[in-house]
Input
Amino acid sequence: MESILWDNTMSHFRANMLFSSKQFGFIKGRSTTPQLLQILDKWTECLEHGGQIDVIYTDLEKAFDKVPYKRLICKLHSYGSHKDIVKWLEAFLTNRKQRVRINDTFSSWAEVISGIPQGSVLGPVLFIIYFNNLVECFSSGTDIFLFADDAKLFS
Output
């Protein structure tokens, strides 16, 4: 059941072209190679016309741990994801607890209020869904290319 729901979500995002064309991480048919080729084309054209390129490379620290559940669920709704899929994903993300063990001593249990479970198939795709509209934040003349939480911002 879960795989059918998830396949439907991915089909919905692909069919409606909801993933940013600037995101190359964890999306079938996209990888670092086409991203590099697109960037090199842009930079080469700029340099051939006497331009200058300024680049900032970022890797958001612990980005997967900081995704707030409520905002992610709202984004899934705003993208038109099926309500059953959103409910299923909300159940997957919420009501989790964690504790720390050092040697034979355990901390108290604490509710997990943000973060995408790492090591899951869903985690990376949920992250890029959350991060998807970052590209809309930049003015013309500035461009950004993403690979999950890594970004190349250039002008």
Observations:
- The radius of gyration is 19 Å.
- The CA atoms of residues 13 and 19 lie 6 Å apart.
- Strands lie at 55-59, 96-98, 101-102, 105-106, 110-112, 143-147, 150-154.
- The longest strand covers residues 55-59.
